[in-house]
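Hi R.,

Here's the chain you asked about this morning:
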Amino acid sequence: MQFHHQIEGQVFARMHHSLSRMLALLLLSFSPLSAFQSAIGEYGGLPRRGLLGISISQNDDGALYVMAVGPGSAAERASIRAGDVIISIDGETFAAPQAAANAISAHAGGDAVELLLARDGNESAFRVELDPRPIESHEGLKTVYDAANVGEYRVRTITIAPRAAGADTAVPAVLFLQGLTCSSLDNWTGRDDSYTSLVVDIARAGYAVMRVEKPGVGDSEGPACRDIGFAEESEAYKAALRLLSSYDFVDTENIVLFGHSMGGVFAPIVAAEDAVAGVAVYGTIGKPFIEYMVENTRRQDELAGVDLPDVETLMRHRLQLWNAIFERGLNRREVIEAEPALTRYANMAGFDDDEHIWGRSLLFFRELVGLNIAGAWQRISAPVLILHGEFDWVANRSDHKVLVEILRRSQNNDVTFKVIASTDHNFESYADLQSSYDERYTGPYSSETAHVFIAWLSKLEHQLKS
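And here is the predicted structure, written out as tokens:
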């Protein structure tokens, strides 16, 4: 959840930004299914996406080509070589590496892909059966890939747990609710990112931790994540909670939600569906969405060095734009037609197209604007942990204090609020707020959030046993 200068939020730059035109699809190692996975069934019946095993780049003439081929990959077995120019994939041509990658990853493992490649001036056709993507592997932990049913489609769930977890040794569990963006949490490439580091720290402390791929993301079926609304996404998390509660290796009396960023808005809604032992949130929203946006964008403008008079002008036009989009139900084209004076601001507001802003649908934000966040939290009687990073420039400290007040006024007397020192929105460490903004996405992972959360979980577990 981030709206830096009204550009679609990228919660983890390492997961979402490409600093060159190369798209890496290269995988150098493959992980076999574990016995723990086999006990659930192969991927819960939901096929893994396919993997060709190449990296795609683009030359100065705009042509796409194979930059590298992974050892032992499907591409290598098919005799595809580095330097081959990609003319078409399944009969379609592509202008960018990402589009070509999407065409390949739309297939499941075991599917065949038709590639037309040029080598030394000669064109050749290749029919390649894709490998399934490997599964995550973490030392000392078990991994299970499963699927939760959401109406007519299924979403991928990924659970990591201590090796000792089993029918005879049920462990407490955490359902992790991610932030705004439609990015995959499936770390099959072994990338270094803060989300993975956080959930691994929690799992190594003795907990089963489930993550959920949003509809249309990774292996998940369903409509494209960018097109769905807030309500439909919440159904995916509710389905995941039901699945987590069904595992024999999980202590069903001790399941906790952890909502990061926008996930913290989903948390009380999901918790109201099924009883949970506790709810924790980090860097989230507690006020009505537009009120949050006013404070958030003003802070980011000031950190960016925008002159205060210009900040006032920006805020006035933003409010007019947000009212037109979220309250009156206009899209970008309709706003420009109805109020030409807002054209400049509509074009710099983070729209991806007329119907999408900040990487999500206008429907998503309209449903969010209509949500009574305070009302959702008033229904939560379970213990609550509210965390905010000291140098978080995405979420407002005041929103977290509002949540504390909402819960206490609703007679929830087990509410803990903590500020995580030197930490930003993404669980990374910085020297100060300005540094966290200027050097965003480059800081080292800070384990302090995990330590505070685990200590709270331990206390909660003790309370449940006493």
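One quick note: Residues 3-22, 24-39 have pLDDT under 50 and may be disordered.

Cheers,
M.
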